[in-house]
Specification:
Blueprint (H helix, E strand, L loop, with lengths): L2 H18 L5 E5 L6 H12 L3 E5 L10 E4 L8 E4 L16 E6 L6 H12 L2 E2 L2 E2 L4 E7 L13 H4 L2 E5 L4 H10 L4 H9 L17 H9 L7 H12 L1 H15 L4 H6 L10 H14 L5 H8 L4 H14 L7 H9 L1 H4 L1
Parallel strand pairs: 1-8, 1-9, 2-5, 5-8
Antiparallel strand pairs: 3-4, 6-7
Helix pairs in contact: 1-2, 5-6, 6-11, 7-8, 8-9, 9-11, 11-13
Length: about 350
């Protein structure tokens, strides 16, 4: 399931259960490391404007789900459980309108922890204390074939949840990246080399993933010493993808002045090299605004059609108000076959 569809599906299932006053069925989202599974669930909770609790399962013990404690007045003969602070029990302030309880990297949990989770999923309680009404339980995890520490999921837990297989998609990631401040250099490179977005191989020490491109590359380029930049990129995505990206980066940093292009679009030179055109698309789209958009259209009309579409759609994803610009409407009518 693609990220945008997953984002919408989590919200839809939550809303449907709440409307029908039913218990939301537990979801398990599985896929290779670094794809953004956890971030999507968090974003869905934000979009729903509901409480969100996230627990990282590999760092937890069974004791983190409650410990035996002597009951008051029991004369030392009986005990109950002291529950963890995070558990959204029925009646706890702030839990009455529902929320999402996420168990991150659940597939790395031990069998004992999985048994506790199975009870939360089905019986909807922890040591006899009911989970608050309207709360959706979700887990995320890698697959065993990814060799990322995932254990076999107990069959009775698996039967209590709906498993959604997550897949990374170029267009979904591009839309997310544009709206979340990912550097245009990285976005343009991924559009140029789409197979580099998520190429996870457990045999390699480092892999290019959406997470490593954003946190390990976009967040550091231009801010560290050029020599350190090379090592940081290699250390984030691996030597092969790093070499390709760094080569692309040289092209990006030696592009024709995009501001000059937007000032004089009809006389500015149009590159013929695909790598340069991909890099230029990102550079121009990042600078597009309502005042210069008509000049951007004049320039891209001189480019091969696929790069014109790439530049314009990139600009529109970054600023949807540009769709109201008269220059776009005129261009869209001429290129509707390419757009739709």
């Amino acid at each position: 399931m693609r990220s945008e569809l997953l984002f919408q599906t989590v919200q839809t299932l939550y809303k449907a259960a709440k409307k029908a006053k039913k218990i939301p069925r537990t979801l398990s989202i599985e896929g290779p490391p670094g794809g953004g599974k956890t971030s999507i669930v968090h974003a869905a909770a934000d979009a729903l404007n509901i409480p969100y609790i996230e627990l990282h399962m590999p760092t937890l013990l069974v004791e983190d789900f409650g410990i035996p404690y002597p009951e008051e007045g029991g004369e030392g003969k009986t005990f109950s459980y002291k529950l963890p602070h995070w558990f959204p029990y029925d009646g706890k302030p702030g839990t009455e309108d529902g929320g999402i309880l996420l168990f991150d990297d659940r597939n790395q949990a031990s069998a004992d922890l999985q048994k506790v989770l199975a009870n939360i999923c089905q019986a909807r309680n922890l040591h006899g204390v009911p989970l608050a009404k309207g709360w959706m339980v979700i887990s995320t995890g890698n697959r065993q074939k990814d060799r990322a520490g995932a254990n076999r999921v107990l069959s009775h837990l698996r039967n209590r949840e709906t498993v959604l297989n997550f897949e990374t998609h170029l267009d979904d990631w591009t839309s997310w990246a544009i709206t979340h401040g990912v550097k245009p250099e990285v976005i343009s490179f991924i559009r140029f080399k789409p197979n580099s977005l998520h190429d996870f191989d457990p045999q390699r020490d480092q892999n290019p993933t959406p997470r490593s491109w954003v946190e390990g590359v976009s967040d550091i380029i231009g801010d560290v010493d050029p020599i350190a930049e090379i090592d940081c990129v290699k250390g984030a995505v691996g030597e092969g993808p790093a070499a390709e990206f760094l080569g692309f980066l040289k092209i990006f940093r030696n592009l024709p002045d995009p501001d000059m292009i937007l000032r004089d679009p009809e006389k500015s030179k149009v590159p013929t090299d695909p790598a340069t055109l991909y890099a230029l698309a990102g550079s121009l789209a990042t600078r597009a605004d309502d005042k210069n958009f008509s000049n951007l259209i004049k320039y891209v009309e001189r480019e091969p059609a696929e790069f014109a579409v790439l530049t314009v759609t990139y600009a529109l994803r970054r600023d949807r108000k540009l769709a109201d610009n008269p220059a776009f409407n005129k261009w869209a009518m001429k290129n509707q076959k390419m757009l739709f």
